[in-house]
Amino acid sequence: MLNLILFGPPGSGKGTQAARLVERYGLLHISTGDLFRYEIGNNTPLGLEAKSYMDKGQLVPDSVTIGMLKNKVLANTEVNGFIFDGFPRTIAQSEALDALMTELDQSITALIALDVSEEEIVDRLLERGKTSGRTDDNDEAVIRKRIGVYKGETTPVYDYYAQFDKSIRVDGIGSIDEIFTALCLEIDRHL
Ligand code: AMP
């Protein structure tokens, strides 16, 4: 199985690239942000709880996020592999993901980080906010908060997988096709 973590700051193109990688490699795309938005759309208690954090640009607590992720993975074990998008975002989530993979006799193949500068990200998110319907993309203060959380809590996840020689960087600036080609080159090296 090929189990990838697509990593990078908000607005780095993870969702866009994940959709294309799913087609090429036949993986199941799991985006915790999408799972939360689905719960919010259905007005579930989990959705209501998640929304209170998401609207402020904060992380949803690990216990909630890890539980939801585990359910999704365990309900879909008959796949060619997973592409995790927006997860893990903390060291605790990384450790929980590794434990889950071990439980399934699996492991994370690689973490691929999309490299994009902060100013580019703010511009992209404000642009996305015009059409995405996402309240967290509309407010520059919330965007800056999300970038701050990424720098403080999430970048250590890159180093966590680097200690196992699993972290890779790919330039996240360029056309969607160029970035996709660069991602595939890295992935094919790990197949
Ligand atoms: P995203 O769609 O990945 O940009 O996530 C949108 C928001 O959902 C984030 O700003 C967080 O509030 C929340 N979220 C998504 N994934 C996670 C995660 N792995 N851990 C904690 N919060 C998350």
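qc> Residues 122 and 176 are 18 Å apart (CA to CA).
qc> done
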